[in-house]
Fold this sequence. Notes:
Blueprint: H1 2-16, H2 25-31, H3 58-61, H4 83-109, H5 115-132, H6 134-141, H7 150-153, H8 156-168, H9 175-186, H10 191-221, H11 223-227, H12 229-248, H13 251-257, H14 264-271, H15 274-281, E1 316-317, E2 334-340, H16 345-361, E3 366-372, H17 382-392, E4 398-400, H18 405-409, E5 417-421, E6 427-432, H19 437-451, H20 464-468, E7 476-477, E8 496-499, E9 510-519, E10 524-526, E11 530-555, E12 558-589, E13 594-600
Amino acid sequence: MLTLALIGVLGGLITAVSPCILPVLPVVFLAGGTGEGEDRTPPSAAPSAGAPPSATSPAAAAPPASPQSAAPPPAAPRRRNRRPYAVVAGLVVSFAFFTLLGVTLISALGLPDDILRYIGLGLLVLIGLGLIFPPVERLIEKPFARLPQRQVNKEGSAFALGLGLGLLYVPCAGPVLAAITVAGARGEISADIVVLTLSFALGTAAPLLVFALAGRRVAERVAAFRRRARGLRIAAGCLMIALAAGLALDVTAAIQRTLPDYTAGVQKRIEDSDAARQQLSGLYDDSNKELSRCEDGAAELASCGAAPAIEGIASWFNTPGDRPVDLKSLRGKVVLVDFWTYSCINCQRAVPHLKDWDRAYRDAGLRVIGVHSPEFAFEKKRSNVIAGARKLGVDWPVALDNDLTTWDNYRNRFWPAKYLVDAQGTVRYLKFGEGQYDRTEQMIRELLRQADPGVTLPAPTGRAMDELAADRTPETYLSNLRVRGYVGTPLVDYEPAVYRFPEGELPLNRLSLSGTWTAGYEYFTAGPDARLAFTYRAKNANLVLAGTGRVTVLVDGRPQRTLTVSGAPTLYRLTDDAQERTARLELRLDPGLQAYAFTFG
């Protein structure tokens, strides 16, 4: 159980710094500092000007002091702003409680599936109005007025804000959160699940609390904040109302889709490690164990048992008459079963690739089936799912797996997840999460050829066209987990190391490093004497670079140009020839520059 708790804490930490929670960070930051600078003591608590002291007051009981003995009363100690703790506590309590028990409560009370989302939006608007209009805030704090400690009930609105954010908190789900969500949806609350949930919540709370405390410290230390406390409270209130509107209109999702999933690598290394899989798999039964023969994103097709049935479905859409689809009726076709939810940012970023494949290969025998397995209660509502699918352009059959029966049949643990089923109904390939779209497309094409050796396939889609072209070097990521064609000194993950080019000529489509480099998941960072060699075939070579510095480009040992790099990741043209050719590219980079990915044209 200790290992399970550690996995939960680490999963929560990763989730709390993922791009999916960015919309709530400004609110958490400002909420931590908006408690300063105002005296909100009710007028009745202070005596009116000129009023005589009451008979029971200390002033009435004490004899008058002489002028010589009179002294100013000591200043009351300044109360510490505890709003950061209240906001984060409310968020964690709300998120943990309703993730585990929300579905059960909603079902028992016969409430709409999206009631919690509406409550969260309403609370967010109410707190925003409270920051703008003090009487509203006093109204919010009334439920906390009976608490014996005045300092506690003063943080009532902050705790209520946290409760509202917890209902709207839609983090990127990895295997840990998936395990919690599935257990909560089924009402299967065991001691292991409770431990996992609490540890995940604590892991999530730590980075959010740091962010809220930073907001408090800025408000306390910066004089401009203290002088303009009232204006800042109004600004924070407006921001919360704007966030509620953005969440209601799905504006925040559009922003999140443009951001890279920078936590994917570390999440995969921790939550999908052998130890984590062993602990999390113990929470479920052993049905369909043959699926474990398929490795995530494997380079070759495997045989992983018969495709489990798509069953326990609440309803279907995008089918004739909304009738269900039976996998057995699709024998002879290649089927891609995609597990997704419409509010999952990772799923949304994968949809364009699914649309390309469906359009390109439908006539060749590919069928795409979406299994919508909800992460949150509001994702169970059919009208919400249909609206979300329409907005994303999803027009293939979709099954609403509201009880997560099919999710469990496939032993799934990720959103999104793709399972390829061959013409005989056998699972041959699976891919968890985003990425490796080129490989997934290769597997689709191979299975279509196996199903019909005489099939004529269209050109590969999108970026994968270059990656699959036989006579051109494919796109190559400088990533410790995704790089291909690397030769030379073994890569050292996330730490500076000294590398050397291998002896002799560098083969085609192979790259190597020399000097000091730090190999990370998203990019390689250059250190002292950093050089990179790559033998490629194309008309032009390009590299995404970031940072500040210069890059000297050599082709076949001859200097060609020097690039000046500055700022955010940008695509730089390294070479540009009239005809395709094979050449040895060498780059010499200033320390600190970040190299992301090569593309060739």
